[in-house]
Amino acid sequence: MSGSLAVTWFQHRRTKELCAGLDIELVVLATNLRGPLRYLVLGVRTLALLARRRPEVLLVQNPSLILAALGVAVRGVLSYRLIVDAHNEAVVPFMNRQRSVKLLSRWVIRKSDLTIVTNRHLAALVDGWGGRAFTLPDRVPSPPATTSTRALAGLFNVVLIAAHAADEPIAEVLAAVRGTDLQLYVTGDPRRLDSDVAAGALPNVRFMGFLQEEDYWALLRSADGIVDLTRMDNCLVCGAYEALALGKAMLLSNNAASIELFGRAAIFTNNTAADIRRGIEGLRLGRAQLEAEAERKRIELAERWSSSARDLVVSMGHRAGGPQPPRMN
After folding, report:
1. Is there a contact between 261 and 137 (Cβ–Cβ < 8 Å)?
2. Which domains does the chain have, with CATH numbers?
3. Which pTM does this prediction carry?
């Protein structure tokens, strides 16, 4: 993708895999600063980068909404086509539901040349708000070449992929495994978890903390099942693609987008403790079939992604209002 540049203000597997698949250089700008000073520093660094590189096509990750808005604000001056890789929070804010955030999010959608979303439900919203949507689920990642694993303690070992964010039903998962004989391994920084919830965890729950990439994949590879849940509507979680990459049985939240995309390769839950317990037991009983379905789904999604990525490359070459190539729904 000659003349293209991608910029993000924090690492995310979706954008990383997207840029790798499209052969777009990805620049991650980061700082340890917080609050308004963080936005000021990263904003200045972003402007300096764009003024120096002068891309023909700029792809930005949203979140950060501030980065996406900055991309819109200076697009006319620097004369690039703006593509926004919009995660769920960028279309339907869940963490930050203030009216000002919603208005700014829709302004970015209207003013961008193209908004990439993961599913047709989000695409319909983007198009309805005057934007131009392109539907592209995540690219199934490639695990590290190493085949390392780690010894796990349980007879049946489940990994809960978590960032301990507000959309994750962590307390319900911990309640679901209470009194069972399985071992649950929880990723992510446990300091972000409610202290009462963490204190109530039983010995069959282990908080793994933030893991380096190779250690993270080794944990997933060693698991008998993978759980990644969200309360966000129509959210396709990264952990589902990671489970597919390893051919693992997985439990996901039963939003429409996840059911449509992953189908028989997953068990789905309504996020209550009782239903999560039922789902995890389903992983145990149906593990072999789910693993076979995951392998089939991995191959299917890889082929679909490559086809849709070719359409996206064509679409990135058109300015807003020009002819639109086919979109995968």
Report:
1. yes
2. 4-136 (3.40.50.2000), 157-301 (3.40.50.2000)
3. 0.91
